[in-house]
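Margin note from the TA: students keep mixing up input and output lines. Inputs are the sequences; the output is the structure of the whole complex. Example:
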Amino acid sequence: MSVRVRFAPSPTGYLHVGGLRTALYNYLFARKHGGKFILRIEDTDRTRFVAGAMENLITTLRWSGLDFDEGPDAGGPHGPYIQSERTGLYQRLGKELLEKGHAYKCFCTAERLDEMRMLQQRMGQPPRYDKFCEHLTATEIKEKEVAGLPFVVRMKVPERTVRFQDEIRGLIEIDPSNIDDQVLLKSDGFPTYHLANVIDDHDMEITHVIRGEEWLPSTPKHILLYDYFGWQHPKFAHLPLLLNSDRSKLSKRQGDVAVEDYRAKGYEREALINFVAFLGWNPGTEKELFSLEELEKEFDLDRVGKSGAIFNVDKLNWYNQQHLKAKPAEEILDQIRPVLAEHAIQAPDSFVLRVIELMRDRVNFLPEFVTFALYFYQDPAGYDQETIRAKWMPDTLIWLQNLAGRLAGISVFSHDQIEAALKETAESLGIKPGGLVQPLRIAVSGVSAGPALYHMLEILGKETVIRRLEKAVTTIQL
RNA sequence: GGCCUGUUCGACUAGGGGUUUAGGUCAUCGCCCUUUCACGGCGGUAACACGGGUUCGAAUCCCGUACAGGCUACCA
């Protein structure tokens, strides 16, 4: 049987990085084993409906490079892939459970339930449904139905131990005697996660359920449901959690958790994927940098760890830098076009490409190819006074004037010619070249940090350099 | 509270009875390269939660304790 896995997020408005990792592992597992990756939207909680959330989720998932084979807008033989469009199925199967005696109608009000839990709590007992409605007689049920009382469908949880093999954690044993009679169908007719999840995973022929560790305790309920329906359950793999720096479950309160946030900050999808892949998995070798394609070949569940991993932005930044360094200049150019436009920069591609190569090792985020290199496109608006104070000598401006003259005389404005001219100027002035280097950089670019000076000047061209030098000589004040 | 899961440098992790003076990466510190800023190179600091057991031998297997996290909804 070929592998079929799914990512089944609830559309809350954005894609959580933990969700991205779950999606990634599912995707990689499918690709590795030549199977299918399915996207299913779990929107059975109408009170948490967020307009546009699903569309945003799909956009972000696609941005990250995780293509799904079946899903809401990709179609497929097991649709619809949105749970709110499948309620008929859940109701039919819920009824089947009722008829088989594996579930019962519960008419308890929210008030009674609250009161019951309060009482249990006060007596130091675990809060649990007291099965009040399980023992309703047929006539009592009829009466309540006729009266039009709202009800839920609860599953009967038996008093026996459920065992299952987790692909990551090994044998798990849970005694459902300490599990609630779970609500399967809510009073609004929608299913809960547990029911919908089991039905859909079966209906969509899912072979491996790869999900977060938070689902581990409720897996026995799911296994029971498969049993009740007479279905074989898929294999389960529960992934370790992603953590805040204080080791609590990764949350919005402590920094950015939305993939969209990282995208907006200029992180590369490749870096985010590489980083997140290593949060809980490693290849067992010392290779750190992986493309999605390489991950597809290397990934497998048997190298996924068991303990939670802290989401460490420093390391993400490093991955980002590494992926940026490896990216072809043409691709970078395409990606920074919007940033160039934002700064109203118009320059030939060939020119921008040269700037990109020069800036490569000095950039951590994509937009910095532009924002750290503005002086390539426009004359400096000011000069870094602090560096001027540190580097200026009484005669520096005169030296620069002198240097401008010599630069103007260069026939081919290449980096080695420029270097030679600077050295000659220094010699004729009786100073060290170092007395000219930083002042020249400031005069031309306005700032003290930047790429190799002579290469920078070469790209700028003779006219621009001379013009800026002359302007600097008349503008800079000590 | 109950149930479940986990615990190797500050972080991500390798190692799963002798190959280990516990390896790699990020971060941090130092040196080199560099007339800037970076990149890069070299090196340093730094970890098997604790207690018992099994064994000739335990980071590795077993038990317990501690700590951490998750779950305990008509949320997912």
